[in-house]
## 1
Amino acid sequence: MFELGFSARNVLIGASLLGVAGGLLGSFALLRRQSLLGDALAHAALPGVCLAFLLTGSKSPGVLLAGALVAGLLGALIILAIVRNSRIKEDTSIGIVLSVFFGGGIVLLTVIQKMPMGNQTGLDKYLFGQAATLMPRDLRVMGVLVAIVLVLTWLFYKEFKLLCFDREFQASLGTPVRWLEILMTTLLVTVVVIGLQTVGVVLVVATLITPAAAARQWTERLGVMLFLAVVIGGGSGALGALWSASAASMPTGPVIVLCSSGALVLSILFGRSRGILWSSLRARTVAQRIRRENLLKDLYRWGESPGEDWTSEVSINLLTGMRGQGASRLLRVARALRRRGLLERTNAGMRLTPDGLLQAESIVRKHRLWETYLTRKLDLASDHVHRDADLMEHALDEEAVALLDERLGYPGIDPHGQPIPPRRAA
């Protein structure tokens, strides 16, 4: 274990504050598909830092960050103006503002460095950040700004939520949507300003988007996503600060980004909502359920054949021919159904149990009701509805089926002249 010094403690606090604010506002930017906006605002802040120094001659972080805030807001307004008053799309306008402002900032930075004592201004630290220069007064400013961001986000949480998911509906309610967008953008610029001294212009966007993208892999609920993004962002900031403090000459900003990127990789792999592993498991589970339901349906349809009933035994060879699948897979599906008490094996093959018949009837009922709906309501030909019904029979729940049955007037025959099984209690 090592003991944190004065500078390391400042870095730890500052990086954690940045991670919390970045994860929170980055989530809204991600959901609004404005991930590049944070990058543009960060690059737009550089000329503001340089102009603040040229106009005041002060190297005070408060003055320089105030200039960055003004330049960032100006960049955001220019992006909005371009989108509103031209045919240029938002992503293109973001690229324009990013490149023009950043190019102007580099020019101004070069001019300043050629001035007497220009190399001692330390403005180049705003490119890649220099967290070790954080002082208690800087932390107080960051703390106040983070508090403002948190309070305003809490106050306008419902409005921000609706803005992310249904902007048109929110506008129809009479909400000043344009002002809400300006407020959200202002908060995003504020977070960018908070991060300039810690991670710099180039990397600050990673503290916005990476925690939000990681949190998105775990949940479909906004409140939970915001909480996880704050935890991942703050945790990555703290871990990066501790890591850089424990290793000599390790830059804090890039290490913070690496920590948050590691969290993103783990989330992409193991995230419960959208992670690769869980998505694969869910897809496999759904595929297995569909195969079980298809076998039940095949057994039911065989029972409708002339001279047969649902107690009839069906051979393995016949079933493999009906579905065009191998006997080994069919037997695996049959074993799964037998474990659930829906099917029993016989000397000649297999047949449905009473519970299996009820479930098979439910599947066939969904299939034939959907075919009836497509032919009656959408005027599709009866020979064009089977494939779609094959998909929908696995997706419709009982509530949807009951509503469909009611809307169709409780039909008894499907478009192909086959009887639609009645609704039965499971």
Note: The first strand starts at residue 343 and ends at 345.
## 2
Amino acid sequence: MENIQVLLVDDHEVVRAGYRRLFESTDDIQVVAEAIDGEGAYQLYVECRPTVVVMDLTMPGIGGLDASRRILSRDRNARILVFSVHENEVFLSRAMNLGILGYISKRNASRVMIEAVRRVARGEVFIGQEMMPHLLQCKQSADGERLAGLSPREFEVFRLRADGKSVNEIAKLLNVSPKTVGHHHTSVKQKLGAANSAELTRLAIRLGIIPP
């Protein structure tokens, strides 16, 4: 049986330890590296070239979506499985559009994780059953259509700004200049039809991108 090498990414040690034990119970899945954030995930992917990246979407810093974008920009054949507390069409749609192969919810992750990793390792798409109702919903709404027009970097700026991060904080997290963040923020407001940051925050809450 071919060994599946996993890069495990989550900012909580207890979560990583739980999945590590789960993988250790198999004969074919091995955790070869762990990261606590998206930046570390990208760097370790370059160093280790794992079979599958298993990554939380919501982490401090650039987050799972932007980390996936960076990894896939470097290696379009990268096989990424994400797990998330976000059971909504917005994050699922963004993940699929990036080329992420697997998406499962955190509440069911332990039950389906092994099957999901094996499927993604074979290059197959794996969407958790709990996510299937959301698969096509995003583009069926006006908000969803506007969100689809955001670039991956614009979406990350939108998420971080709505979550209360300042322009300077976002610039540091994304390793870009504050001027670049400001440009993206202006573009996001125009594309989403928001007059100010408060309206962006309300939209993000309504879509389940950040908690109320």
Note: The mean pLDDT is 86.
